[in-house]
């Protein structure tokens, strides 16, 4: 092993000894942006990356996200209606709430984009579905519908997936429910009453209140989670991280910027309001960078793609999928299992129909700049993007022009 000036070219030595599996594991720990920079280091490194099919595939997917022309697939186009909520990750379906002369929940297969069910949430008008979520067993929707002594009735509906029947309804909050999430056997709801309610869903016909989290002092405006953690934000710009299943607050921080929305892909999270987003490392409890939407509109929705390290799919028995399974089949001769951490993108939508995308690997690698790495317009500038979902290969948008669109990058 050659050693010159007390420096050792580890990648070169691994390649020289044909230790391809070890070299591949090292490449798997690098983000696409770092892989791209590695290619420019020298001709040897360029060949090392070029000869690794997994690295080539990740670089190509990154290129398509940031520069490629996505394929746009329309699911719903209902002028005069409004898409009020949408869920598409994790699982097999795209489910969204549609408001017109009544409030309905529409369920489509993610692979075929065919309608499989339509749940009539309410015949009343006005009635609205501000949030919904699903797993392989249930669909949970929240609605404000009937006037009760001068106010609105804020109700959760629990529907069984097996036959699309209504299992139960209940009211965990006295004020507007802004967000509903699933975590294992729990429903998490965030409300204008300043609380987060945790409801046991072991028996969908008899949901049982387990915890009321009271750490926030104002409206709880956003909520996200994985199988182990919950992150919440309130309109007084406070972000909190809670553990599952204890539901104890792990830490709390003042974001110091307008904060209405939050999305998490552990250990990363993004918070935002108006035209400013902030990228956080929750594990190390520090702010990475403030980001500028560079838009005339204001933030309406934000999502992050999920990294392979984020754990089991939230609220579902479906396991997260990554490119590793297909690659393992292609390289069955390799004895050591290779893991692909994937790349994490921030995707935001505004009230003028504009989508903005940031590649977090560029930011974490130290690339300067706060503006989006990509932007594109959806429909007319007067149409607010009201709902958003993302996965490794696509963005799914819903807007107030009655459109649900899938933007596929593969």
Topology:
Layout: H1 10-16, H2 20-28, H3 32-39, H4 43-50, H5 53-66, E1 71-77, E2 82-87, E3 93-99, E4 103-109, E5 115-122, E6 128-134, E7 138-148, E8 151-160, E9 166-170, E10 177-183, E11 186-191, E12 196-200, E13 208-213, E14 220-225, E15 229-234, E16 238-243, E17 249-254, E18 261-265, E19 268-273, E20 276-281, E21 286-292, E22 299-304, H6 324-330, E23 345-350, E24 354-359, H7 360-364, E25 374-377, E26 385-390, E27 394-399, E28 403-408
Antiparallel strand pairs: 1-28, 2-3, 3-4, 4-5, 6-7, 7-8, 8-9, 10-11, 11-12, 12-13, 14-15, 15-16, 16-17, 18-19, 19-20, 20-21, 22-23, 23-24, 24-25, 26-27, 27-28
Helix pairs in contact: 3-5
């Amino acid at each position: 092993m050659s050693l010159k000036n007390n420096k050792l070219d580890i990648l070169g030595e691994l390649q020289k000894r044909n230790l391809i599996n070890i070299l591949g594991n090292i490449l798997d720990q690098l983000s696409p942006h770092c892989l791209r920079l590695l290619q420019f280091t020298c001709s040897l490194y360029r060949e090392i990356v070029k000869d690794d099919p997994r690295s080539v595939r990740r670089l190509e997917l990154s290129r398509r996200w940031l520069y490629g022309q996505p394929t746009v697939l329309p699911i719903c186009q209902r002028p005069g209606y409004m898409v009020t909520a949408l869920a598409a990750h994790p699982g097999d379906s795209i489910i969204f709430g549609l408001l017109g002369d009544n409030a309905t929940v529409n369920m489509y297969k993610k692979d075929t984009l065919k309608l499989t069910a339509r749940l009539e949430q309410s015949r009343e008008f006005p009635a609205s579905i501000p949030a919904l979520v699903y797993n392989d067993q249930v669909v949970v929707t929240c609605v404000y519908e009937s006037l009760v002594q001068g106010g609105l009735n804020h109700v959760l509906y629990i529907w069984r997936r097996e036959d699309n029947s209504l299992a139960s309804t209940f009211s965990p909050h006295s004020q507007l429910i802004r967000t509903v999430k699933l975590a294992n056997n729990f429903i998490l709801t965030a409300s204008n009453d300043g609380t987060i309610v945790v409801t046991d869903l072991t028996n969908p016909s008899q949901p049982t209140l387990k915890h009321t989290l009271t750490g926030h002092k104002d409206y709880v405006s956003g909520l996200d989670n994985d199988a182990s953690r919950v992150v919440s934000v309130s309109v007084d710009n406070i972000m909190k991280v809670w553990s599952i299943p204890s539901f104890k607050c792990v830490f709390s921080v003042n974001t110091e910027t307008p904060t209405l929305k939050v999305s998490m892909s552990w250990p990363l999270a993004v918070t935002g309001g108006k035209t400013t987003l902030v990228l956080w490392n929750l594990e190390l409890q520090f702010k990475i960078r403030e980001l500028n939407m560079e838009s005339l509109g204001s933030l309406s929705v934000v999502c992050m793609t999920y990294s392979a390290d984020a754990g089991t799919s939230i609220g579902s028995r479906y396991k997260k999928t990554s490119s590793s399974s297909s690659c393992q089949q292609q390289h069955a001769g390799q004895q050591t299992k290779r893991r692909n951490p994937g790349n994490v993108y921030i995707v935001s939508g505004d009230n003028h129909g504009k989508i903005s995308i940031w590649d977090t690997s560029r930011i974490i690698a130290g690339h300067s700049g706060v503006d989006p790495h990509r932007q594109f317009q959806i429909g007319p500038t007067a149409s607010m993007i009201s709902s958003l979902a993302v996965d490794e290969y696509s963005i799914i948008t819903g807007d107030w022009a009655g459109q649900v669109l899938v933007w596929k990058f593969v």
